[in-house]
Design a protein that fits this description.
about 25% strand, globular, four-stranded antiparallel beta sheet, homotrimer, about 425 residues, alpha+beta, 19 strands, 12 helices
């Protein structure tokens, strides 16, 4: 149970807040690069800041203030040009550094004043990596954008899935260090929703949590496992500060503001042996719905169940009324680390998991359970026969709403027909 | 005209407010029992408190805190079991007393700690009576749930109709002691809406208001009546603290919070002689819309006209700007009683209309005008010939939106075909 | 750049605010008279005040408090009668002066009290002129309602177009003194939206701004013009305090409240020679949408582009963060005048542009560029051959959503078939 002041520290991310300062020291994935094959600019809110993300005709991305500094009009309605984006109201042109390149009337009528030289608007550096657009909101110099090993895996079909979840980011990230919820929410409740039967799967016997360079790992032994199991030996990764690495996919919980979170998933699926060598031309990005057509949270898919749970905790979970228990040791550990790091930030001490040495930023390995299930080459026949693998090939189980065009791309890449999702009816990582 | 402080006293119902204290001393109807033939649990907000109402597999209803005490997740998304409801996030199981019966991981990993024994969440007693689910939110011991005589009438078809009206409860209840609005809103305005003609019905000549054990009665003489009329001799019942009894139906105005009211109607219709004896197997519950498909308040049916009037007074009617008049004596009387009773509550004095003696709580009679129209046995032919009765048999005149399945049940019970509602074109209780 | 206090002064219009006081000294167009061929009463909010606008059966318009003084019910749900509007709840009848003409129950039961005599509710004078309903919210005596010359033009088809734009009125009115936005928003951006090509039209070389009796004029020279051009010699009219006169149409930006503006357009189109003499029987009024069916601001038509720009500046543009430039001299001039006039109001000095001498209020001429394009008689053939005229005849280019029945009226009046809008692809007032 926290005090209200502690809860505020964890949940408030706007400019000037302690958590806002800390999170701004890390690169955040904010969109999919391929979105800009269709659009030129879009409004985006991150960490409480209203911005416009655009791709100009030279192919450069820019992330600048949403409102033109002139008369506050909306730059997301602007026109991209060879370099930069032009306000649609009076034609001022800005580049990705926030510099004003043109003020058409002033340049014509009063060129001697050269007034554009004095103008600079808010801008943030942007990088594209593995299909994602990343932005950095902190002080210069920016750290390096992490080059996780997974981003270099070959022969895989990658897709990016994004949703806007109407609740605070921190309750989402607490879910990244919560082994027990798999048993109850995804297995037992998921099963209940599908079958209406009261049948419970294998129980957790023991959990443990450890810190490492890039975050935390959580470890568990269930009734059908033992201490030799990957799940105990290696553990899964709660990635610092706002990610989750599950082997074949990453999830990030990027604060839109204090009351909304951008859920960003990067999902890799190894193509079957028959499809090798496979090189992906475009990494598709799609936006998954959180609510169904009558406004109820979708509960059929893995992450939709997570979303439903997060939202169910309230817009900003009231941690002054919680009652933590033995299963929550990881959450306690993580919160403490955040409190410490906010302190470190204000004391100008080094921060956790920042990467500054380029020679070390090469295909960084993360702890990974059941790695063979993710990266090993298998024939279609073998995949179809393996009940812990096939469900992940025949439909996108993590989120509802995969568009047909992505299902088709996936199907063509994998050589396996996409079917309607019918729930994951086997434990996800059974030893059998 | 009230002061703002007085208006706040009447309208604020949250925990700790004077009116909140007072209303919590009375049982409130909050749902229909038959709703739970289809669903297992639902979120419900009453008196500003967020709760979950469920029926477990043993048939017991429970009304407990909506948020799990563990991590604040939404228990309305939980799983009911033989006894109680289980949180979908980490599997904690709670019963109707708010006791924690299971904490699966803690019970397995740390059984010696027996930590569940220390956990108790908010819970309220629930009773089922005459198709309604009633809840009690006050201090122990609870009073008895009133056994109104109407709940024992035989040979009747009962339906429960519920709506959520977006305004404060008190302006709804003021309507329970307002005879003049029948003449103007339901008769003259209702007629105007249907016919576009400026024609007014018979006028009220005199009104009077009296207090009795279970509330107030209001009395009236119209141009076509006299002092021998039931309407003057007996009067209609404004039921304390938040009900209205009109003979063949009850209405309750249950505060959802300060800005929303649950309108709950219990409506009895005597079956014709040909259908006797009739025993109702299930009392249907249906939810009536307040707004039409383009968002305008529905104005065709009796209670929808009331809803429209209540909402028209503002979310919380501003009684600092009203100008009460001769017709409002009942409202003044009722407000005074509420101010007195709030005082009585804080002085720990006995409160009005609480029933504690079980021997007296048996088919309690309420004043009832034109009782013969409600309970007397008539043939279908007689009903069809009586223009003050037939409209109530051929359609549900009180609220728009009766579902087909309820209309069908009604039609089968009454032996009279349901027709489209075309307005009540005769005064409802004319002497002729 | 303004201080927050200055921005508040310009943008807050509720009762008691300095700008609220000032604007209330001027007649405001609030609806179209022909709306009341279909309806009898409607709720309307102007300058932050909730009102009901009705037309009684004698043809008189009334604008009175929305809430009945008795119990606060909504008079917009009331019944109009020969004189005045009657509350639907208890039948109190009010006339256009806010006097209570009847209290049915009180009049019947207690006629001696004559309590209605003491009752008066808020009411505002209303006048109808050229199809518009105008209201005056200020102190008595009211000034004269301006009789602009355009209201007397003959042989024209007039239509009134109204939209509710969710942003503060002042950023809308700043657009009335902003020549440069035509070049960029309507020409260059409009062209970009239609053609996707980066092609810019002729530039502004010089702008100028002057005050005159009824507002300001703005003057400009573009690359294809010179100082002999009407656009420099005469200029266009930013009408004090909240209008815009463009020759063939007026636009007013009427504050609904601080965060919403009623855009009211009065548009005249000269009928071709073949249709003369033409006398218009009814001036149609239609309400144009601001957003499309998925909630995005419409950007195809001239004023929809304006709406989009205004809304893009934020609900209330934050002028503490703007950076005005050479093109904004008119805006600076206008703001200064508003600050001065608010001061004049509080010092009880005469205010700008108030008309009190009836002998002078006759077909008042306003500066008007290219007047020949507006009022001169031409054959259909001539119109079709003139590329600066024909687009305005074959579709309503200013706002999306003209209903079919208006298009049909227009088409019949003009003798020119209405076609789908395909954008204005020529500069609107080219010299060539």
């Amino acid at each position: 149970m926290l005090t209200q002041a502690q809860n505020d520290l964890l949940t408030q991310v706007g400019p000037g807040t302690p958590m806002g300062h800390l999170l701004r020291c890390y690169w955040m994935p904010i969109a999919g690069a391929s979105e800009f094959d269709e659009i030129q600019a879009k409004p985006i809110k991150i960490l409480g800041e209203e911005l416009v993300l655009y791709k100009d005709l030279s192919g450069q991305f820019g992330l600048i203030d949403r409102n033109c500094v002139h008369r506050r009009s909306d730059l997301s309605a602007g026109m991209v040009e060879n370099h930069g984006i032009r306000c649609h109201y009076h034609g001022w042109l800005f580049n990705a550094k926030g510099e004003c390149l043109e003020q058409p009337y002033e340049d014509t009528a009063h060129p001697e004043a050269h007034s554009k030289a004095k103008i600079k608007i808010k801008s943030y550096p942007v990088e594209v990596k593995s299909g994602l657009i990343w932005a950095y909101f902190g002080p210069s110099p920016a750290p390096l954008l992490a080059d996780w090993e997974a981003f270099s895996w070959t022969d895989g079909f990658v897709q990016i899935v994004i949703s806007s979840v109407p609740c605070n980011w921190f309750q989402c990230q607490e879910n990244s260090i919560d082994p027990i919820h798999f048993e109850w929410m995804h297995e037992n409740w998921g099963n209940r929703l599908r079958t209406q039967k009261i049948e419970f799967g294998v129980k957790h016997l023991k959990v443990d949590f450890k810190e490492f360079e890039y975050g935390f790992t959580y470890h568990r032994i269930k009734e059908d496992g033992d201490e030799n199991d990957d799940a105990w030996q290696i553990g899964r990764v709660c990635l610092w500060p706002n990610g989750f690495f599950l082997g074949e996919h990453f999830e990030w919980r990027v604060p839109i503001d204090d009351e909304n979170t951008l859920s960003v998933t990067w999902k890799y699926t190894r193509v079957p042996k028959e499809m090798e060598p496979y090189e992906q031309k475009v990494i598709p990005t799609w936006y998954g719905p959180v609510f169904d057509e009558i406004g109820k949270p979708i509960n059929t898919h893995v992450m939709n169940q997570d979303f439903l749970a997060w939202m169910g905790q309230g817009t900003i979970a009231d941690r002054t009324k919680e009652q933590l228990s033995a299963s929550d040791k990881g959450i306690v550990l993580m919160r403490k680390k955040f409190f410490d790091e906010m302190q470190n930030y204000s004391n100008k001490k080094p921060l956790k998991a920042l990467i500054s040495d380029a020679s070390l930023n090469h295909q960084i390995k993360l702890p990974m359970v059941y790695g063979h299930l993710v990266t090993q080459s298998r024939t279609i026949e073998e995949i179809k026969n393996q009940k812990t693998l096939y469900p992940f090939y025949k439909s996108y189980v993590f989120q509802a709403g995969q568009p047909n065009w992505v299902a088709k791309m996936s199907s063509q890449a994998l050589g396996i027909e996409v079917q309607d999702f019918d729930g994951i009816v086997v434990p996800r990582h059974s030893k059998k």
